[in-house]
């Protein structure tokens, strides 16, 4: 079995850990042995991206189909090779 040492533990966290261990009738060390596997064996929540978050937020409102506007002819390409004097005249 491996051993670990945890330094610079927050005093409040240490106090709460001691209290929890006492409530469960265990030593602090045994309490940590119980907490670590439980915390590490939990399935990680699937990563969500912004699109999924937005979808989840608006899903209760139902689906809305939007009309796609017709494409228009492209505007004429702007040529920047003219000099400022050519543009002003």
Automatic annotation (TrEMBL):
GO terms for biological process: regulation of DNA-templated transcription. Gene3D superfamilies: Met repressor-like (1.10.1220.10). The keyword Nucleotidyltransferase does not apply. Residues 2-40 form the Antitoxin FitA-like ribbon-helix-helix domain. It holds the Pfam family FitA-like_RHH. The keyword Heme does not apply. InterPro entries: Arc_rbn_hlx_hlx, FitA-like_RHH, Ribbon_hlx_hlx. GO terms for molecular function: DNA binding. SUPFAM superfamilies: Ribbon-helix-helix. This is Arc family DNA-binding protein.
